[in-house]
Amino acid sequence: MKAIVRRLIASVLYYSGALWLLAARNLRGRVVVLMYHRVLPKNLDSHSARAIVVSVETFSRQMRFLRRFFNPLTLEQFDDVVNGRRPLPPKACLVTFDDGWFDNHAYALPLLREHGVPAVIFAATGYVGTEHCFWQERLTRALFLLRKQTKAAAFLREIGGEHLAQVDEASARDATRSLVTQIKSRPAAEIESLTARAFELLRECSLPTDHGDDRFLTWQEAEELAHSDMVRIGSHAHSHTPLPRLTQLDLQKELTESRNELMRRLRSPVASFAYPNGDYSPESVSAVRQAGYSLAFTTDSGYARPGADPLLIPRVNIHEGGTATSAEFLCRILRLL
Ligand SMILES: [Zn+2]
């Protein structure tokens, strides 16, 4: 119900012209940096959180919208604009992706090309070209598969997931996703041991332990993206650990090695960075600067401005929820509703 009301309000604001007046006022002197993660067809076998996924149809509609009503910048143009070397065009935007998922190449790239919208992809080098996957997707998938297994009943009870056995097939993915969201606040070591136990149970129950469509780019795909003229690759560190949790030594290692690996494998310069999980501290920001990055993006909600700190660039998160129509998409860009 809430979603219907929101869609209705968005379309009244949009078609009355009110949103466009607001856009002209609120976006003046600013660049909208959009943050995406994954672009997926609806039938894929993914257990990613809804907050990081847009459908192929929605993404296509959004890129057409940006091309028509905004000024999509390349990373180089963005760099010039925020550093005052180039005048800021009206309704400027920059499209970014975090993590380095395989679908950025399979589904996003053809649409970026079709609509002529450049983008930046921040890749976590510990995942690109490997079989590794984030613990969130691994644990969500494991719980989804284990939910009706008698052998897993005690484990599910222990982590507050006893209700999963009763949930119908259609709601099971969302139910396991929200359980994992709750688990997210537990200490890292505890999460690691929970995930390991869930995978032991999968093996005991002879259930698959692969990651389905929750895969990262191969290096060849990353290379094709980097040489596509549409995409620049930046670093999202190596292990995707939030920077403030790392020791000073590991922090330097993560920042330098991921940058060097990207430059070596993709044979192109890397000067941009996105903070894993959006987390930063004064120490991590200065380490990012020392490692040679000149632009760094957070997950704080807001707009980029010429003259603001280029190592703390806020963004606007885009996922399927509340962005499926042009009116809702513009509302999200304006950080309304
Ligand atoms: Zn990330």
Automatic annotation (TrEMBL):
Originating species: Steroidobacter gossypii
Keyword Transmembrane helix: no
Domain NodB homology: 91-337
Annotated localization: Secreted
Lineage of source species: Bacteria, Pseudomonadati, Pseudomonadota, Gammaproteobacteria, Steroidobacterales
The keyword Signal is assigned to this record: yes
Principal place of residence: secreted
Superkingdom, taxonomy of origin: Bacteria
UniProt xrefs under CDD domains: CE4_NodB_like_5s_6s
Listed name of the protein: Polysaccharide deacetylase family protein
Pfam assignment, any one: Polysacc_deac_1
Annotated keywords: Signal
PROSITE patterns reported in the protein's UniProt record: NODB (PS51677)
